[in-house]
Amino acid sequence: MTDLALISGALGVVVGILLALVLVGALRLARRGSRDLGGEAERATSRTLHLAGLAAAELRAEHGPELVRAARHLRHLLGVQAVAFVSPDGSVASDGSVNGLATSARRIADRVHETGRRQVFPRRGKGDDTPHEAVGAPMTVDGEGRGVLVAFAEKVRGPLVRATGEVAEWCAAQIALTELEASRASLAEAELRALRAQISPHFIYNSLAAIASFITTDPERARTLVLDFADFTRYSFRQKGEFATLAQELGSIRNYLELERARFGERLDVRLRIAPETLSTVIPFLSVQPLVENAVRHGLEPLASGGRIVIAAEDETTHTEISVEDDGVGMNPEAVQRALADVGETTHVGLRNVDARLRRLYGPDGGLVIETNIDAGTMVRMRIPKSQPLHETDAP
Questions:
Q1: Going by fewer Cβ within 10 Å, which terminus of the chain is more open, N or C?
Q2: Domain assignment present for 192
Q3: 3-state secondary structure (DSSP) of residue 389
Q4: Is residue 203 part of a domain?
Q5: In total, how many domains does the chain have?
Q6: H or E element in which residue 17 lies
Q7: Residues 247 and 347 grouped into a single domain
């Protein structure tokens, strides 16, 4: 199952539980005997969503102070004396005033862990001066316990038992989403490391050799190429996030092509057809440069006469279409299809990696479109949404 499917499933759980919480809040207020049901119901819905949103932000942080604030929001949501989170290691984050809260919460969590089910805890006897009852519910992610949610009240009744269970499930969904986000970030970093590893040692060797050849014959050209090489490597190995603007990526591509021109000379013809309004488009970092490198290495380098590369970007209202086309030797369409499907070894690792990243970010239909055949050149296209509020670039 893909990360996107997992995230979609988790979001479905969150939405379902959130709707249940809204109904809980609305029913609690309705039972208070409101004559203006519509107004009270609307206020209950708004209040429930507001508290759930506040609690979600704190739960996603997963630190002590944030968990205490999350407990405070959930205590108000449930309308109880106190709420406590008991982690698997026995630490307690709570809000509310209850005698011996931490000790009681740990005792309840132990019982819930033993059974794996929601538990109700009445007062322990006539001599018990503790003025509260409690309900504990497990927070479980993929069958693994991530803690226990405990709600304390003067009297525990059926609606509170059900609501506490639903809130515990909702908390578990928030934990799952946090872990999925961490997994996604780790995957993105691994993909970038793989792309950086594909910066060909052959290209680096050839670039340095070309620079060396100009040191005595054209020192100024050698100096310019050294700066191009430094800028190219600085961009490629930067540590500033997963996204860049198209303008930033094109700057790195210019440096790359200047280094290749030092080797190819007049055999490398590069044309740019960039609509100015597309330059600010946010794109995945190192998503266009590997396409240009693929065109040089696999399209033009095998030809003694070299060839032409056309890099284009067009504004398509809601999307920016970016393409890299060469008139080189082309590729076997079946081999390209196998490479993108991650089947077997391939010399087109860069294409496979870029395609996988695009599909992860923009969905199954968001990958590369490749038109090619033997001796027919290659065109590679991608369509990037212009509106990406969650995707920002930190690069200058």
A1: C
A2: no
A3: coil
A4: no
A5: 2
A6: helix 3-30
A7: yes
Same domain, residue pair 265 and 156: no
CA 102 to chain CA centroid, Å, is: 36
pLDDT digits (tens, 9 = 90+) for 208-264: 888 898 888 999 999 999 999 888 888 877 756 688 999 999 999 999 999 998 888
| Token reading at 181 | 């986000």
What pairing do the DSSP bridges indicate for beta strands 307-316 and 268-274? Answer: parallel
Contacts of 121 (CB under 8 A, 6+ apart): 108, 111, 133, 134, 135, 136, 156
CA terminus-to-terminus distance, the chain:
36
Exposure b/e, 351-390, CB count within 10 A at least 16 = b = bbbbbbbbbbbbeeebbbebebeeeebbbbbbbbeeeeee
Instruction: Answer yes or no: is 115 within a domain.
Output: yes
Q: What is the mean pLDDT of the chain?
A: 77
Average pLDDT over residues 119-135: 67
44: which 2 tokens? 């209950």
Nearest CA to 354 out of 294, 295, 286, 279 is that of 286
Q: Are residues 173 and 225 in the same domain?
A: no
Q: Give tens-digit pLDDT for 106-117.
A: 888 888 888 888
Q: What is the CATH number of the domain that holds 160?
A: 3.30.450.40
Whether residues 241 and 366 fall in one domain: yes
Domain edge (last residue) among 161, 183, 205: 183
**22 and 146 inside one domain:** yes
Q: How confident is the model at residue 385 (pLDDT cuts 50, 70, 90)?
A: very high
Question: Taking residues 161-169, what's their average pLDDT?
Answer: 83
Is the CB of residue 382 less than 8 Å from the CB of residue 358? yes
**What's the rounded mean pLDDT across residues 50-66?**
59
Per-residue pLDDT of 256-293, as tens digits, reads: 999 998 888 888 999 999 999 999 999 988 899 989 98
On whether the CB atoms of residues 249 and 283 are closer than 8 A, the answer is yes
Tell whether 225 and 166 lie within a shared domain.
no
Whether 318 maps to a domain, the answer reads: yes
Assess contact for 158 and 135: CB atoms under 8 A. no
Cβ neighbours of residue 311 under 8 Å, at least 6 residues apart?
A: 250, 253, 270, 271, 272, 273, 274, 288, 292, 322, 323, 324
Which one-letter DSSP state was computed for residue 212? H
DSSP class of residue 300?
I
Helix (H, G, I), strand (E, B) or coil at 329: coil
